[in-house]
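It would be a great kindness if you could assist me with a short task in structural biology. A protein sequence and the C-alpha cells that stand for its backbone fold form the material at issue. I should value your view on which stretches of the chain appear to form regular backbone elements. The record follows directly beneath this note.
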Amino acid sequence: MKKIAVSLLFALLTFGAVLSGMTDIIDKSIEDFFYHNPVGVSEKIRIIKIDERSISELGAYESWDRDMYARLVETLCVSENVKPAVIGFDILFSSEYGNEADRHFAQVCEEQGNVLCAFSYVFEREAVTDEQGNLIVSSLAVQETVNPYPELYNATRHGFANALQDADDGVIRSSMLYFPLDSTADSGREYSFDSEIYRMYCEAEGRQSLLPERSVITFRYSGGIGDYENVSFSDVINGNVPAEAFDDCIVLVGAYAAGMMDAYYVPVDRSTQMYGVEIHANVIEALLEEKYITFVPPWLSALAAAIIVGLACFLCGRLSVAKAIVICLAIAALSFAAGYMSFNTGGFSGNITVLPVGAVCVGVYHTAAHYYTANRAKRQIENAFKKYVAPQVVSEIAKSGNYELKLGGENRDIAVLFVDIRGFTPLSESLEPEQVVNILNSYLKHTASCIFRHGGTLDKFIGDAAMAVFNAPFDTEDYVYKAVATAWDIAQGAETIEKEFVGQYGKKVGFGVGVNCGPAVVGNIGSDFRMDYTAIGDTVNTAARLEANAPAGTVYISDSVYERIKDRITVEEVGEIPLKGKSKGVFVYSVKGLDKREEQE
C-alpha cells in the first residue's frame, strides 16, 4: 500500500505541475535548445539590409528621402519578367512630407503592384468582455494605428509588423498572423506583415494560401543570425548586384544596424540579438513550409506524464537502487529524445520538462529511501549488537557493513568465561523484589562493562549468571589473556560492590568465575524467527564446570588457559576436578594476579 500511495503522489504532483504551468519557463528554455538545429533557409527569401555601410555611403538614414526607396523598387523591377514576387518594406513610412519624393515612391509602388509596407499597432491594457461574457483585462486593446502616409498606404498592400515577445523572458518564439477587428471572418481580419507577404507570394506563384486558422503561431526558426542571403542597400542602389538575383523572390528591406533599434532576442541564439527583418524572414519561411509548432493539450500532456512517472515510481520500488536509477535515467533520456524528435520532425511540442524531471525525482526518491531504510536498519542492528558485543566490535561490524543475520555456525578457537553470583538464592529470599533486582542489575552491569572493556562478546545472561566469549564473532588479538583479565577485573571489582550492599542490606555475596579455551562451534542457533548468537561444545561445558566449582571471589582457569599465558599470570594450583560425563577431569588453577606490565598495556 505504501508503494501505491507514493506512486499516486508522484503521479498527482506531475499532473499538477503541468496543469499549473510551473514548468513553462523551463520548457521554453529546453525548446530553445531544440531551436539550435536550424534546417537551412530558403533561397527564395532575400534581405536588402540598411546597414552601417549603406549609412556611411548614402548618408544618415533619417535624411533619406522617399526617392531613395523609389530607386530601389525601380532597380529591382526591371520588367514584368524580371522582378521580385514581393517586396516587403519593414520600415514605417508614417511621416508625410508632401513633396514630390513621397508621390514618386507611392506611384512606383502602385505601378509595380508587388510592394507591401509595414504598419504598427500601439496597444494598451483594457478591460474587455470575452466570448463567454466574462470581463477580462486584455493587453491587445488598440490605442493607435501607425500607418504609412496616405498616398503610400493607398498604393500598396500592408500588414502590421508588431513583434510578439514572450512575457516571461522577452524572447520571440511566436508570431501573430492576424488581428481580429470584428466577429466576421476574413473581412474582419487585419493580416500581419508576414502573413500578407505569404499571401502575396502565393498569389504570385499561383499556389493556394494555407494560413493556419489560429491567430498566433509558435514557429520554428529555419536560420540563425546572418543565415539568409543578404546584400547592402547601397550595393543594390549602385547597381553592384544584378536585378536577376532577386527575380521571383521575396525581398525584405529592413534595418540591419545597431542604432536603428530593431533587434530582439531569439531562441536560436540567446547571446546575440537578431534583426527584425531576419525574424520576418523566418516567420515567412515557416508559413511557406508549414514549420510551426502544434502544442499537445496540457491535460493530455499532464495525464501521459503522470501515468509514466507513477508507473516508474511503482516499478522502481520493487527493484534495487542501481536498476531503479538506470530505469529513471533511461526514461529521462528517452523522453528528452522523443521531445527533440517530435519537435524537429513533426512540429509537436508539449510539456518537455516534467517527464524527465519526474523520472529523475523518482530515482532520487528511491535512492534516498533505500539509504534511509538501510541506515535505519544499520542503527537498529548496531544498537542491538551494543547490548551483546563490545563497542569496538560493533565499530568493526559497522565498517564492514556486513549485517546479514542467518542461521549457521563455524569452528573457531575461543576463550569462554562464565560468572555466577554466589549466595544469590538465599539473598533473594530475604529481600524485597525491588532490592533483589537492584543488586542483580548492579552486579550484571559490572560484569558486562568488564567484558566489553576487554573486547569480549556477551553471549547471554542466565538468571544471576553470565556467559561471554572471546575471539568471536570476529578475530581478537590475545583473546585468552583478555578473557582472564576480564575475569580478574570482575572478581576485583565485585569487592567494592559487595561492601556497598553489605552496608545497605547486611548481606554478603560474591562472584565465582571460570575461564577455558579451545575449539567450539559458534554462530546463530535457533530458528528463522528466533535465534541466538552463542557457542557450543566441550570447551564451553568445561568453562561452566570451572565456574560452578570456583568459590566466591576466585577465578578458576583450566590447564589449557594456563599453558598459553602462564608467563603472564600468577596462579595457585587447585588440582584436578572431575567433569560430569567425562572419565578424566581437568587440572585447575586459581588466578592470584596478572603481570602488571600487561595490565598497563
The mean pLDDT is 80. The radius of gyration is 47 Å. Residues 354-386 form the longest helix (33 residues).
